[in-house]
Amino acid sequence: MKSEWIALSNTSIAIFIAFANYNMIIIALPQIFNSLRFNPTAPDALGYLIWLILGYMVVTSSLVVTFGRISDLKGRAKLYSLGFLIFAISSGLLSTVNGYGDSAVLEMIILRLFQGVGGGLLMVNSAAILTDYFPKNELGKALGLNQVSGLVGGVAGLIIGGVLSVINWRYIFLLDFVVGIIGTLWSFKSLRDVQKPIKQPLDIIGNILFALGITLLLISVTYGLLPYHNQQLGWGNPFVITGLIISFLTIGMFVFVERKVKNPMFDLSLFKIRDFSVANFTNFIASMARQGILLMMLVLLQGIWLPLHGVPYSQTPFWAGLYLIPNTLGFAALGPISGILSDRYGSKVLTSLGLFISALGFFLLSLLPYDFQLWQFFAISFLMGAGMGLFSSPNMADIMASVPVQKRGAASGMRASLQNTASAISVALYFSVVITGMAATLNSSIESALSSYGIHLNVNLPAAVAIFSALLGYDPLSSLASSLPTSVASHIDTPAFFITAIAPSFISGFRLMLNISAALLVLSGILSLVRKGVRVGEMGNRVERTQKAEKAPAD
C-alpha cells in the first residue's frame, strides 16, 4: 500500500473513533447515570451534565492551536501517535469508573478532559499529515474521504452506543481503548514526518493567553445554560458576565502579543491569504450550524418523535441513530465527489452551492411539525448532509493548501480551534435560543395539559430541565402521579403526556434557531464566492513545485 493511503487509512480511523466517541457518550448517558445512581433532573445536576457533554470540546478548542505549533516544531507523526496513546489510556480509565452520585460523574468529567487532550492531538495532526503526504491535486479527495469517515463515525457512534449501552456502557470505553491501542501501534510503525520539524522557539506567552482566554470563554458560555435564581438561563449570573469580560480582555491581549512576537503561535499573517481567511470564516459558521442542529435533531427524535410513536425510552437512542443515517448518506455521497471535483475545477462554486443547499435544508426542516412524516424528515436530512458534504472537503483543502508548508501544523491548529470553538458555542447558542423560546409558553402549556384532567397546579419547570429530561428519557412530571387518583395518574405518568405538553414550546424555539442558521449559511455562501481558489489541477501542481523549488536552496 502506498504511504499516502496508509496515512489516509490511519487518520481516518482516528477521526472515526473521535467522532463516534462523542456521540456514543451522549447516547449512553441514561444508562451511565442509572448505573452511577446519578439523578440528572436534580437542581445541581445540569452543571455536571453540560460538562460531561461539552468538556471534551472545551479542552480541544483551547489546546489545538498550541498542539499544532508544537507539532511543527517537534514532528507531526510523533505527536499524532502520542494523541492516540493518551486517548487509549483515558478511555481505559473511563471504563473502570466506580462509585456513585456526583463524585463518580466528576471523575468521568476529569477523565473526559484528559481524553480531550488526546483527541486534540489527533484532530490537529490528521489534516496536516494528509496535507504532507498528498499532492495538492489529490488533497481534496483525501480530505473528503477523511471527513466522511468522521461523519460516518458520528452516526455510527449513535448506533454503536445504543447497542453497547444496553449490554454495558463500559464496553463503549473499552472499544475506544482497543481502537486507541491499535492506532497507537500502527501510527508509530507506519507514519513518518515528511517535512522536517522547524527550529523555532515556542511562543509561551501567546499559548498561555490563548488557552486561558478560550477556556474562560467556553466555561462562561456553558454556565450560561444553567438557570440562575428565577431566570431560565444564567446569562445574568455575575460569574458568567465576569468570565465573558475577562475572556474577551485576555483574547485581546493575545492578539496584541501575537502581532509583536517574532514566532507567534497563532500566525495572524495567514489571514492575509484570502482563501485561508474566507475558508476559515465559512467553516466557522458551518460548524456552528452543523453541531447545534445535530444535537437538536437528537432531542427531536429521541425525546419527542420516537416516544410519541410508542418507542420505549430504552430503545430511542438506537432508533435515533438509525434515523440520522440519511444525513450521513448525503454527506458520504457528496463529500468525496466534491473533493475530486474541486481538485480538477476549483472550489468556489462547490463550497457556495453546498452552503446554499444546507441553508435550504434548514429552512425546510423549520416547516415540519413536531409530529412529522418520516419520509419528509429523511429527505430533508439527506439534503442537509449533501450540502455539508459538498462544502466541507473543498473548503478544508483550500485552508490547508493555501499556507506555506512550514506552517501547516499551525494552520491546522487554527482551523481546528476555530471549528471546535464554533461547535461548542453552537451547542450553547442552540440550547439558549430553544430554551428562551420554550420558556415563554412551557409552564402554561403543561398547566393547560394538567387542567384537562382536572388538575390545577402552578408548575415551575425550568425549560433546561425539560429539554434535557426529554433527551435522556426522564419524565419530571411523573412525581405528580403518586399523589393523584389511579384513573388520572395512569394518564399523567406516561411519556406521551409529558411530550405532548412540551413539544409545541420546543418546536417554536427550534424553528427560530433553524431560520437564523439558514440566513447565516446563505451569507457565508455568498462570501465564499470571493475566494481565489488557485488549487486547481495543474495549477495546484505548479504551486507545489514552486514551493519546493523555493525551499530547495535553504535545504
UniProtKB/TrEMBL annotation:
Signal peptide bounds: none
Superkingdom of this protein's organism: Archaea
Pfam family, one: MFS_1
Keywords annotated in UniProt: Membrane, Transmembrane, Transmembrane helix
Membrane topology of the entry: Multi-pass membrane protein
Major subcellular location class: membrane
Residues annotated as transmembrane: 12-33, 45-67, 79-97, 109-130, 142-163, 169-188, 208-226, 238-257, 278-306, 318-337, 349-368, 374-397, 418-441, 512-530
Record localization: Membrane
InterPro entries: MFS, MFS_dom, MFS_trans_sf
GO terms of molecular function: transmembrane transporter activity
GO CC list: plasma membrane
Major facilitator superfamily (MFS) profile domain ranges (all copies): 7-481
Matches recorded under PANTHER family: MAJOR FACILITATOR SUPERFAMILY (PTHR23501), TRANSPORT PROTEIN (PTHR23501:SF5)
This protein's name: MFS transporter
